[in-house]
Design brief:
The complex is a heterodimer of chains A (131) and B (246).
Chain A lengths: L1 H21 L5 H15 L2 H15 L1 H4 L1 H11 L6 H37 L12
Helix pairs in contact in A: 1-2, 1-3
Chain B lengths: L2 H13 L2 H21 L8 H16 L3 H13 L1 H7 L1 H6 L1 H6 L1 H25 L4 H7 L6 H11 L3 H25 L5 H23 L1 H33 L2
Classes of the chains: A mainly alpha (131), B mainly alpha (246).
Amino acid sequence: MLASFATLLVFQCLGEGITFALKLPIPGPVVGMLLLFFALVAYPPLLDRIEATGSELLRHLSLLFVPAGVGIVATAGQVRGHWLTVILAVAVSTLLTLAVTAAVTRAVMNWQNRQNRHSDGGKKDGEGDHA
Amino acid sequence: MRELPQFGLIWVYLAASPLLGLTLTLCAYVVAYWIYSRCKFSPLANPVAIAIALVSTVLLLSGMPYSEYFAGAQFVHFLLGPATVALAIPLARQLPRLRKSFLPLACGLLAGSTTAIVSAVVLTILLGGSPQLAFSIGPKSATTPIAMGVAEKLGGLPALTAVLVIGTGIFGAVAARFLFNRMRIDSPEVRGFALGVTSHGIGTARAFQVNQEMGAFAGLGMGLNGVLTAFLAPWLIPVFVGLLAR
């Protein structure tokens, strides 16, 4: 458990370091996540070793947003803005983004499945995900 | 009558140490999670939103300043970094499916990221918002540090952006199930990915509560859209603001 946690921190440090050195507009932990992903693909045994700790951390991901969220509520009162405009724009745009992302992903998935079935001559129906 | 000042003293003593902020955060989350489970894990009872409301109420009633609270809560906040790194783990588990779905995910990401930015900017301007408001709202689907960075670069208000990012996260996590059911989207892969692209970490947290597979694809969507927004938003937002606001 300790070794796994240390592994996560090492990758976070690497990510933060790279972000800082290259002045990337991306947060260090996101770079760390990409690096760890490549490391896990390159060396799969690492996956079994750190999986238990990682899953435990992710099980309560919601909890980790509470302190920052409270800070934002605490400062929200100082922000002046057209709240009605803001609320409408955020709500509609969020629904649109959910719908467009899901619809496009599914459409291309279905198209790909059809292509595969054609090329396999209908012999193998590997995926059954089409809606 | 001796009880009251004594209780006050104890409170002052505890408030001076990080212990109280940390305890408050964990207790509020335990209560929020209990409510969430009593509501059969309905997305409407979002535990992040409930816990934030509980802690904010306590701070408001006790007059405890946020900085004092954060002295304790920062230990929880710190774990957000390693947890983000840990998102690579479920993702690596899903590698075979990820390989197969590379093209659909790439198309969905590009369409979703563009929709998030353009629709927010266009709606804001059409509803009478200022360009500064549009700069603040445009990057709202990216994770907080990226969104704030983009807003700041463009001349928006990073503090407002932070509020909108959290709002987008919670609203998306609450609304996704109803929307996807109506659209008849069943695949946990697609549902998770769209939720991560739209509602970043808060959406991803919700996806993990549904199942690991949905969580893995949500984490992927969050990470990729963060990166893509950092590159797309700085030029896409000014183009649309320039077109619409004259």
